[in-house]
Input
Amino acid sequence: MIRSAMAIVAAWGVTLAAAGGPEIVQDDQTGVIRFQTDYLRLELTTDGKPRAFVDLKTGRDYCRPDGSGFALWGKGGKWVQCTSLKYADGKLILGFAGRATVTYEVRAFPGYLHFRVAALSDPKTDGLTVANIRTTMTKRLDFPLQRFCSEDFNACLLPYGPEMNASGQVADGKMILWANCRANLGRGLRGRGWAIIGAPDEALPGIIQEVEQASGLPHPVIDGQWAKASRAARTSYLFVDVTEKNVDKMISYARRAGVAYVQIYCTTWAKSYGAYPIHPDNYPHGEAGLKAVIDRLHAAGLRAGMHMMSGCINPWAQDPFVQPVADPGLASDGTFELAKDIDAQAKFIPTAKPPKEGFRKPWTKISGTDLRLGGEIIHYREMKNEPPYGFAGCLRGRHGSRATAHKQGEQAHHLIYRYGFLADPDTPLFQKLARRVGHVFNACGFDQIYFDGAEAMGEIGPHWYYVGKMERTIFEQLERDCLASGSGHSHMNWHTRARNHAIDFAALAVKQHLLHHKIGSRFDDYDRQISRTELGWTALLDWAPDHPATDLPEIEAHLVKGLAYDVPISLETRERSLDANGRTGKILDLVSRYEKLRLDGYFPPEIRKRLKSQQQDFTLQRKRGKFVFVPIVRTPAHLVKDRETERWRVNNPFAPQRPIIRMTARPTPRAYGEERNVVLLPFEQPAKAFAARWSSPGVKYAIKAAGEHAGRKCLEVTARSTLNEVSTDKTGLVRLTRPLAQPVDLSAHRPLAFWLEGDGKGEVLEIRIVSHPSGQSRRYVVRVDFEGWRYCELPKPAAAELFEVSANPVQGLYTCDLTRIKTVELRLYRLPAQGSVRLAMSPVEALEELREPLRDPLLTVGREQTQLQVTVWPDEYVELDDTGLWVRYDRNHHASERVKLEDKRLEFPAGEVPVKLVTRRGRAEVTMRFAGEPLK
Output
């Protein structure tokens, strides 16, 4: 059972030390109320202010008194500080300038202080800041838990329910132990409880467990251990599409990878997320079939994970919560009264007031374009905020609901859309959703749950409340041991989850995405965190026009960092990719090897510390019967496309060696201006080139015709920034958008080209192509660090360089369906501070790719040459591997032939080496990998 009893802190091997014992005492002579545990002394003055927050072991006081009250009382939008405190017989009475009193029930335990709102003199109180202790602590750990630290001492505030906002506050870089609750969320203010903890590192996990069990907070256990401390929380998993038909194959893949869990996509086990009906195509025997699949996983020694989309409801998959009658519990952010009767065919929905006045928040943008009117869902294309008011261009009976007549005065509700519609956690609909998820989890024997899309709950109202309430409501339905993780964070789901931090995978720039986005600052203090972290999701993909097939280096980069930080990885893939990728077997073997070495603690802390480096790559090798890590360097990809690019220099930072060399054939594009290219941005009429134009605050722009260049009509763009810093694509950009009349297939037109006249000021010009309906994109960027006209041919979209030029680098790195490009955007950013830029450009074309192969490349290194007698088609490659053989591979890494050589010598001396590549036909992209001496 999830909350089964266990010996407190047994999993962590610590006991609570005695240091004077818990007590609460009021000293009337000094005017101080002293709250004491075995580790902490908290002092409050009788005039309502914090005075001390003392680590009893060291005597350090972490309180920063600044005159602020210990609590604040709110009513009518005004907040009053606590002005008096009085303690007697387990009650702490707080006075607020004679306007109200609030009574706390208080108790001191060996590890923590307990508080609960027992009474309020004014029942119409709007809210309470129940604690407000300013500290000198500067570091926060275990997000989203409110835990601050200094040296090895921790300050922590744990609310007992989701109704309290305990996100923490910061003042002058110092942390504030703070929590607030509102009367309009949950069941009012009375009964709200929380714990305040001050304790050293070794005692804190046990204290938190004690608070969880005593207060009724979620306290999941796995195999008798606190879930966070369990071995299960350290294990990796395979995230894949398991069905009745392929379960044995998936078991084979998972066992080869050495993982403990297999997590099943919600779109695989369920036909739709929301009501979660079992998917009839994948599970023709329904719930019994799903249970049988999970029984097979269990019999193979594996555990089963349930992926779900939290409170989201898929309107595109015939979900029963949407059709044939839309449920009234679908979350909305605005209501609108019908101005007159309408029939079932009406295309205009008249409202009594301008639609923008019907939103709960000031209307700036909308999260969706659907209304619920009774049980009908209506899609609209336009809002009319001038008479006649209403919604125009409507499609009736949307998503399988029934179109019906409606009466004047009936309420239309604007539905919130994020990953689908949302079930409001304050309605019976959400209870139905939670019961359904709990039933499937329990009846079919799942062991793990991933709360995906949980952040969407923040669209309904306060993120900290709705995300926490959503997850706790579902979690309370689970009757089996459960390893929980998910996206979207609140202080409440810190308790439900054994681990966190899975992030959607990148299909491009995988290494940079890992280092800068997945690890970033959240891993810096991992060694002191109580929460487990996972390094996921990591993709295993087969080739597609928008991305290459996953190769060993991308996977090993994740595995190295997972071992360095002692965190599991999650390998996200599909049956199709596992079957198609020629490296699948080696990837799974590598995952298994790293998993065992990590769980066994094979490498000492000093080696693991060196593996955390973001400047150095490593690979695992076996030498003299032992596993070692070898530092490696991969050279930037060099594209050989003509005589000017056939020579370049390569640096070998290690001893003389023969590196691993890869030559990938790249398509040869048609020349700019040819008829078979696709013109994405024509500039014959600049005023009509873009349907939407926008610029950030502080940035002004203008566009106009700029004459001709290379026989093509051009566009001039000027922009000026009034910002005091170089503008980014977050703080200052120009965005010009052109929707295409019909989706365009660019899967064989991937290179973009145009002429550009630069001003040399360093701004960034970005051309973004956006797929429909996913909204995913590919981004092509040019740094305008030159003056005059230059031909810009961009063979591939930007990837790694986005981390250098963009404040939003991950946009454009996910998978993108190039066969359905519907929108083209021109963006301009990195404008100089308080400066202006001017550029002109010719029409932007997507160049058709010719299937011209790479033939017989001649590689020269220094004075040594190697002639390869080989034909390599675009996106295939030939590689000199670590065995000294040249092998040709297809685009999914399947070896197809060994290549005949005229000369096998190719040793690179240490330092910089001149390289030359000449081909009879085609283009080649060349990379090399050099290896150093093993770490010791």
